[in-house]
Amino acid sequence: MHMATIPTSMRRWPAATLLAVLVAAAWVVVSHGQTNGEETDAAGPTAGEFHFARMIYQDRAGYGGGFFRRGRGRGWWQQDWPAADTHFTQAIKRLTRIDAGEFVEVGLHDGHVFEYPWLYATQAGFWDLSDDEIAMLREYLLRGGFFVADDFWEDAEWEVFREAMSRLFPEYPIVELMGGNAEVLHVLYDINEVTQIPGLRHLRAFDPRVGKIIGLPEPHWRGIYDSRGRLMVAANFNQDVGDAWEHADWPEYPEPMTTLAYRFGINYIVYAMTH
């Protein structure tokens, strides 16, 4: 699913023109699921060139929740589901010309993840990925997939995420994206502000004058690149982008934060579909 990077000159085109070019271009599914342009998985979604794909995972022991949503409770992977997925899918349709289909939930056991170029996981500080899941995710990303981790906080949760990434890509470091020239922050929207995206529970402590949650650590946007310089993993650390999507229609949630969260998400998608 590798495509050429967007030339610098194209980044200055009007957003509508650029998106028309991007979504008109053919992009190849990571591995299987389509043959000669026709979907072959009869059980999967049939509408749309892009689907918001949420990762299903097992919780760490002692952190509660179930593995699947039907009949066994809610695992941490379902945080903000389905409102975040619904609202953000609607935003994709409203703000871009991408043909967004229904959102989906996928595990890392049966190969269906290869049908989607973009994968999202929330509460990555609470997951417990098996060696088989790590191997599947690694293959998915090396074949061209793009993974977003969101809504995990402070040192203990970072360590859980970092340990999984060290098993996933021992050869590639985790690096800071903000403050440099990371293309993913400028592929469509220019994102330069270091503003923490709060969860609903953080609003009382959020100070818009400094753009952060008082009493909590600094926000970070981090990532992992492959050997060719393609971003494979984006990590919203000390952020709750999913809450900003989920509560997009709540008067209590600040509109600027939802707008910023939409920009991050859409940049991630455009990058995933063009690299």
Primary descriptors:
275 residues; alpha/beta; Rossmann fold; 6 helices; 28% helix; disordered N terminus
Please characterize this protein's 3D structure.
The chain has helices at residues 15-24, 83-95, 131-142, 154-168, 241-246, 255-274; strands spanning 34-35, 38-39, 53-55, 104-106, 118-122, 146-152, 175-176, 206-207, 212-213, 220-225, 231-237. It has one domain (8-31, 47-274): Rossmann fold (3-Layer(aba) Sandwich). With 275 residues, it is α/β, with parallel strands linked by helices. The N and C termini lie close together (7 Å). A hairpin with a 5-residue loop joins β10 and β11. It has six helices and eleven strands. The model is unreliable at 1-13, 15-42 and 65-73 (pLDDT under 50).
Summary?
The model is unreliable at 1-13, 15-42 and 65-73 (pLDDT under 50). The chain has 275 residues and is an alpha/beta fold. It is 28% helix and 15% strand.
Please state how the strands of the largest beta sheet are arranged side by side: 4-3-5-6-11-10-7
Low-confidence stretches: 1-13, 15-42, 65-73
As a percent range, the share of strand residues is 5-15%
Structural class: alpha/beta
CATH fold type: Rossmann fold
What's the total helix number? 6
- In total, the number of domains comes to 1
